[in-house]
Design brief:
26-stranded antiparallel beta barrel; 3 helices
Length: about 600
Amino acid sequence: MLRVSSWLAAAACFGLAPAAAAQSLDADADGDDEEYILAFEADRVEVDGDLRELELRGNVDVQVGRYRLTSQYLEVERTKRGVFVRGRGEVAACPCPESPVTVGFTWARLAPPTDYFVRNATLRVGGVPILWVPVLWLRSPDRVALLPPKVAWRGHDGLLLGSGVHVPLGSSKHTLDFTAAGYVEGGVELEARLLTPETTTRVTWDRLRTDLLAMEAVGFDAPVESAAVSWRIDAVRGPERGRRATIDLEEASRRYDRAAVAAYRTSPRANLALGVTADAARGGPLDELGTAGPRVHVGFAEAVGDVGSADFALDARSLRTRGQAELTTVAQRGELRFDARPGPLAASLELDERTSATVSEVLDGTTAAGRARVELSLPLVRQFGRISHWVQPFGEGTLGGVETRGAPLDAGSLLPGRFIAGLGGVRTRLGNHYARSAGSLALRAGVVETRQNVESVVAWRASTASRRIGLSAEGGWTPERDAVVSVARLRVGASDDIHLGVSAEGNSGGPLRLVRLVSDDGWHTPVSPWLDGDGWSTGASMGIPWTSWLATQAAVDWDLTEGQLLAVRGSIAYRHPCGCLAALAWAGHRIGRDGLDAWVALDLIP
C-alpha cells in the first residue's frame, strides 16, 4: 500500500481555506490580514513599498515556514491566504538544501503550516522526474483531502489499486478515512477507519470471487463520572476468503470472532453492567452471528471491619444460536477475605463459592464450587539506594470441591470433584514496587490431591517492562507426567536501539486445568486456559537502527511440533536526516496464503 500521511491531493476538489501563519511579522490596522515571514536570497530583488510583493531574479532561494523554493525567477506575493508564487521553480517540504523529494511548478500557493497547492506539478525524486499532474495539493491531517493512490501486492490475489478521502471530524485527533480499491484481476476492497482519542474502528469489505468482512473496534466513553460505555469487536467473516485473505498471522489464526458492548454504572459499593455479547467461529458466513444475546452483571463490595472484605456478583445472560434453542445461564459468586499481621508474618484467609445454572429446552446443568485457602508468609524488604528488593516466602493450603450435574456451560477448566493442595513458594520483586518496570517473580510448588490421583505441580510467573528488557512468562510443570505448559515473551534491548525479541508457547500434553488451578489467579479465571491444544511454536524478531535515518526489522514464526514455517516478514524504514521524508517498505508471507505480500508507506511531511 502506498500511503502519504500528509494527505496528497491530486485534484482541486475542495475549497481553499485560510491558514494560520507559521510566524507573524505584523498586522494590518483592521486586523484582517495575517502576515508570513519570508527569508529569501537572489542576485536581484525588486520590492514594492510595503514588502507585499517581491520580484526575484537569479539563484533564487525562498523559505516560507518549512517550505523551500528555488528558481531563477519568481514573483512572490504575501496575502492573508498564504504566499502566492508565480514562475517556474521547485518546492521542497523542508528547508534543507538537498531535499530528496521536490515538486516542480509554474504557480504555487503556500500556507504554512497546513498545506501547499501547485500547478503543473512534476514530482522529482533525487532530481529525476517520475510523475506529472496538472494540480497537486499537499494537505495537513486537519484538512479535508483526497488520500494518495493505494498500491499493494496481495500475494496470489495480485495487484490492488485505489484511493480514498480523509475527513477530519472537528480536529486532527478525530478523523475518518475511507478508501476504495480494485484488484486488477477483478474485485474490490472498501475500507473505513475512524480514529478518536477514545476509539479505534476499522471496517473492511473485500470481494474477489468470494467475500471477506473484517471489523476491529475498541472504544470507551464516560459521559458522566459514575457511568461509562465500552465496546470491543474483533471479527473476520467469510467462509472461504475470511481467513485466506487476512495477511496478519495472529489475526488469521484466532479461533473465534467476539463482540461485546456494555454500559456501566458504578458507586463505591456496587456496580451494574448491561450489555450484549456475541461469539462465532472465525471465518463463518457473513450473515451468521454465532451465539449472541444480552447480559446483566451486578456486583457488590463491602469492607469487613479493618481486617477483611466481602465481594458478591451475579451474572445472567441469554444465548441464542440460529436453528437452536435459546439457552439461559445464571452465575453467582461470593468471596470473603481476611488479613492479619501476627508479628513479622502476614496471614490471609480466603473463602470462595460459586454456583451456576444452565437452562434450555434440550440442555440443563448446574455447577457448585467452593474453596477455602489459608496462606502464611514472611514479607522481607531491603533498600539499595532508590531500588527496593521485596522477598516473600510463603506456604498455603487449599481445600475445595466442584460438583456438576447435567451439562453445565461454564465448568470450564475447573477440576471436577474434591481437591486438596499444599503449596509453598516465594514472591520477589526488584525495583519500584508500584512501577511496571520493576522485575517480579512468583514461584509456587506443591502437591494436589484429586479424586483421580495425587500429583506434584510447579507453577511460575515472571514479568518486567524496563527500557532495556521486557519479559512476560507464565507456565507450569508436572514432574510425574514430565509435561510442561508455557507462554513466554522476551525483549532484549530498547525498542529504539538494537533489540531482539523471542517468544515460545506450547503444551506437551500436561494437565492444563491442574496447572491453572495452582497459578496465582487460577481460581478466579477458571475459564481462561492458556492454550487449548498440544504442540509448541516459537518466534523471533530483530530490529536494527543502522543509522539515525535507516532501520530494519525482521521476524519469523515457526511450528516446532510440525517443523513448519508459519510466517516470515521484514521491513526497512528510511527517514531523511533533515526530516523532510519518511518511507517504510514491508514484505511478508504467512502459512495459508500463496505468494508474497508487500506494501510501501510514504510521508512527505513526517
